[in-house]
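During the no-cost extension, the postdoctoral fellow (Dr. R.K.) reprocessed legacy sequence entries with the updated structure-token encoder. One reprocessed record is reproduced below for audit purposes.
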Amino acid sequence: MKGLHRSLALCLGLLTSLPAWGQDATIAVQVGQPGPVLAPEIQGQFAEHLGRLIYEGIWVGEKSSIPNIKGYRKDVLEALKAIRVPLIRWPGGCFADEYHWRDGIGPRNKRPVGVNTNWGGVAETNEFGTHEFMEYSELVGARTYVNGNIGTGSAREMADWVEYITSPSKSTLAQTRRANGRDKPWTLDWFAIGNETWGCGGNMRAEYYTDQLRQIRTFIKPAPGQPTRIIAAGSGTDDVSWTDTVMAGAGSMIDAISLHHYALPSMGRPTRGTWKEKGSATEFTESDWFALMHSALYMDDLIAKHVAVMDKHDPQKKVALVVDEWGNWFDPTPGSNPGFLEQQNSLRDALTAAINLNIFHKHADRVRMANIAQMVNVLQALILTDGPKMLLTPTYHVFDMYKDFQGATQFPVTVTGPKYTYAERSLPSISASAARAKDGSILVALANIDPNNTVSTSINLDGATAASVSGRILTASAMNSHNSFAQPETVKPAPFTGAGVNGSTLSVTLPPKSVVVLTVR
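Re-encoded structure tokens follow.
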């Protein structure tokens, strides 16, 4: 009997260690009703002068013992090229509205040293300036997004910067650029007039900013033939009145307006101070998991609210909505400089990255750029470094899995059931998007945010017949599984074998807390 009891206990232990099975989900992909092309810039990156992002994360200098290409650390550069980073935003962020571009040109040993008053009060050497950023973008193969200084700058300073970057003429500014080592002008793809002007960019009222925007835009004159699109500083979350004011007063003078949204596990949790106590990146409960998923999914409603206002002023959708700051924000890593915004990156971050990319795909008729905050060593970083060491985070792997969505043609997607329920609150278990890739294959991205239950999914490709399906999955044993320098491959993609095809129907078994990207041919 003791042996029987022992066997029963063992069986029960094995059963409890297995994922539970949830309800079935059905997903309809309207292949016969293609939508807009997904702008590659939706997978854009953000590189602010903040913490160890620029200095160590990107720039180490030519004399560094860390392998580098002309001062740019080689391992990070190669990792960014591998996921085809389409665009980089620079130099901020809050830093942008205290940045004077002339401090960052000319011989590096003669550039003035300032203080980064926004992020840690550390010295800003200006070793990494306009030439370094534009050259780095070329090395990565990324388009360029430069954020102008409206807070402490001027219309002339911004106009001169654009001329310095783009002019092929023999003007003094263009000749100065040549004397500093760059003969031909660079391509400037996007230029923003200020950042978070309602906050760190000047604490302006919407009406005041709109008047400033109109004036400055008058004098921003990229050289003929440049693709430069002008971005207005938009709302910080659900302040649609800001969007309404800017669109009404200057909508005809801009190409885009920005939107920022950070997901916090403390949002809506009165026991915490939301921004004051955001919670740990790696030590959290299922309650924190649920709260973060809820905050990330709010991006869908947030975009819809601002799009409705934009549609009122711009029904032809000429003006893009650019979500140029998004991601998860936790308490800083213990022992780090709190002004450096360093945090670890777990499987939880991978799930919210997939959620956001799927939401951007859904709204691709307006959302034509998005920039995760931030690229290296800051907030929801794709890459972490520690001196000469480097690791790829779970969020990096999501961008790698999604890279073929760049330039793909979106398909409308409808998901039916099930729900992920925690403490009598519910969220949709499945986030999904689909598109036709440039090579003709159909891409289907799926995220099961339920950390406990497997979901059996039937996907109907309405308008297409499939012959084969393959894919990759990103998951791990625990909600807080993450990569460390001691164990850098704890969370990484693996081949996915849980999908089958029968004509126009895919059958997919999604494990708990997983991201799956399928390629259907």
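The longest helix spans residues 286-313. The radius of gyration is 24 Å. The remaining legacy entries will be reprocessed before the final report is submitted.
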